[in-house]
Task: structure prediction
Amino acid sequence: MLYVIFTEGSTATAGEHLVRHDLAYEAVRLARMLTALLPAEPEAHGLLALFELTAARFPARTGPDGEAVLLEDQDRRLWDRSAIRRGEAALGRAAALGRGLGPYGLQASIAACHARAESVKRTDWERIVLLYEALGRVAPSPVVELNRAVAVAMAEGPLPALEMVEALAAGGRLSGSHLLPSVRGELLARLGRTAEARQELERAAGMCGNDRERTLLLRKVDALG
Result:
């Protein structure tokens, strides 16, 4: 339940705000309480690590008018370094318990890769791919596979990633989500298939319930010319 609350706070599914800070920070507070109640449970620490490391990026995720800011465009100087340190410490506690990382710990490890990187280009995408592969084994889902495709695109290029996305689409997975056409549109754009990319991004915008995210998708359409 805490994961669901934080996820909705981190990227609201609907409405005019991209981030719902009230929900996200309440989930962080409750996760801290959970680690105090269950100090020997690795996933409690993994969950807190994930929340802290993700919330650390909140100050840079939106612009002055509340507009969404892409990861590659974020001013990393705005990231909350105290939250990153807390997240790294929680992740360390999860690992130190010696029972291996579960789904939350693996997601926190991915968030830590982003937190440690100086830029998108200097992010350890190869490690992120491996972490998503591990996550897919312990907690398989179409969203995990889609995120792995994004990481593959950064590590190896858009073509193998597009093949993964096409396989998801062919299986009817994520058919009701704007995430799949959004990623597919990005990959098609990188491959120079502009008309198809525009169509996919427009479709994603039409399926998106969050006003800020929809505006971002339409900006991407406009940027294609």
Remarks:
- The domain at 142-225 is CATH 1.25.40 (Serine Threonine Protein Phosphatase 5, Tetratricopeptide repeat).
- The two ends are 42 Å apart (CA to CA).
- The chain has two domains: 1-123, 142-225.
